[in-house]
Amino acid sequence: MRFSFVLLLAVLGCFLLAQESGAATGTTTTVAATTTVASTATTTVAPSTATTTVASSTSDTTTASSSSSGSNSAAARRRRRRRRLARQRQRRERQRQRQTQRLRNRIQNQRRVINELRG
């Protein structure tokens, strides 16, 4: 029972590692593993849903299914791009406001000098 539990944890760890690497690249990753107490293990990677099944000598069976389409990473890229573009717009707007203020100050100083010379 301990052997099958440790084996189950190892298979699930491999499954999570494969799922994370698939999400990082935007691909679909599937890991299907079947393990018995007789130390027979089969791991298959195919582009569909992921299934992990572990059977022990007491006929305990556990099944977990998951699918990673990579859409989360695409959505994250879109969010990062939108934020970057928003920061660029804000930066340009601040630069434009500073330039406008500098021109106003310059005009004000020129008027003051003109009024002093007239004065």
From TrEMBL:
The keyword Nucleus does not apply. Pfam families: New_glue. InterPro entries: Ng_1-3-like (IPR054054). The keyword Thylakoid does not apply. Keywords: Signal. Residues 76-105 have a biased composition (Basic residues). Residues 1-23 form the signal peptide. Residues 42-105 are annotated as: Disordered. Residues 42-75 have a biased composition (Low complexity). This is Protein new-glue 1.
